[in-house]
Amino acid sequence: MPPAVRFGVNYTPSQGWFHHWLDFDLDSVRADLDAIAALGLDHIRVFPLWPYFQPNRTLIRPRAVEQLVALTDAAAERGLDTAVDGLQGHLSSFDFLPAWTRTWHRRNLFTDPDVTAGQAAYLRTLAAALADRPHFLGMTVGNEVNQFAAGPHPDPDPVTADEAGRWLTRMLDACAEGAPGRLHLHASYDAAWYQDDQPFTPAHSARLGAVTAVHSWVFNGTAQRHGRTSVPAEHHAAYLVELAKAWADDPHRPVWLQEVGAPAPLVPAEHAAAFAEATIGNVLDCPDLWGITWWCSHDVSRTLADFPELEYSLGLFTGERRPKDIARVLADAARAGHRAPAARRTALVVPAAPDRRSRCAPGGDVFDAYFRLVADGTRPTTVLDTRADDRDHLAARGITDVVTPGQVLPALRGGTRS
Known about the structure:
By secondary structure, this protein is of the alpha/beta class. The N and C termini lie far apart (about 45 Å). The longest helix is centred in the N-terminal third of the chain and has 18 residues, at about 115-130. It has helices at about 25-40, 50-55, 60-75, 115-130, 160-180, 190-195, 200-205, 220-225, 230-235, 235-245, 270-285, 325-335, 365-375, 390-395, 405-410, and strands spanning about 5-10, 45, 80-85, 90, 95, 135-140, 210-215, 255-260, 290-295, 345-350, 380-385, 400-405, 410-415, 415. Helix 1 runs parallel beside helix 3 (about 60-75), helix 3 (about 60-75) runs parallel beside helix 4 and helix 11 runs parallel beside helix 12. It folds into 2 domains: about 5-335, Glycosidases (TIM Barrel); about 345-415, no CATH class. Strand 8, helix 11 (about 270-285) and strand 9 form a beta-alpha-beta unit.
């Protein structure tokens, strides 16, 4: 029997957002966790803010680490496992980088030897502090750290793909040194799959770490182009799960939908539950799914300034811990059980070359062909063009038919699709 799909939520504290680490209130955390556990979820993902935990390269605050352990223990008391992100990094449009990497101390986050030594020490310390906790799942190196490596970030830390791979390997090794045998991974936002010049590549995501993480947000052009109830919008998360499989060396490598949400106004509040139900149902039809972790648990308080408007209302709960309809959708899915889906027999060919990733993005021919197949009733997966004739690879994944975007889409006539 395959393992059960995990259902969880990214924990955003109801009081103080992630700034709660500055005024840590375990009773408030416990009340938040009570609400989450009542939904029948089995895990949370938590975010220590890096500058608060490591304000100096050689100072990792013991009290902050103790608070992280206390939060993990409180979650365990409620039957919740905890996954911990390390290098925060970037959250909800804000960057959280320690002063020893910026301005007068400006050093590259991925290649400077002092910075990378400090990062490794920090990740190792957090992992070691939790290593003896049975409800600790493992570390994610950081939240969408690839956004620091290239545009559209306004002040990127340039890095090559080889350098990014070496950095990820070193950080994952540090996590494993602190807590051997746990589920350690890294996470990129969708530029890793869609942006031609992004140095963090699909191969990094699909081959480094214990599982592949994907983050699905339809504000990337999908909902704008196609609408919230369209096939591309409601299947976008499933698309990323299946797209990730093309680069994996293990034919059954697990994929974790580590972030997915219903962003207003593209998905208005009154339609969020329906969007969640469709998204979750479609993702559950993906083989080798590790789990679904919704973004996020609690709304951001309107007393906090300068967030993008959509960030305030993404929670399953209001700031007063009242569940929304979308919370009930996730609870129903978690409690319903899940039968492992059949293999996806049809594979769409995708380019292996990193500088052709934009073909997979909204507006690209791979993207359009995939959703044409879905609309026509096919359950597609993907395969690299370099593996499309590899019979052993195809057989291991249960693939019996391989098609190219050109075979799926209508012929181009006069420069437009007819």
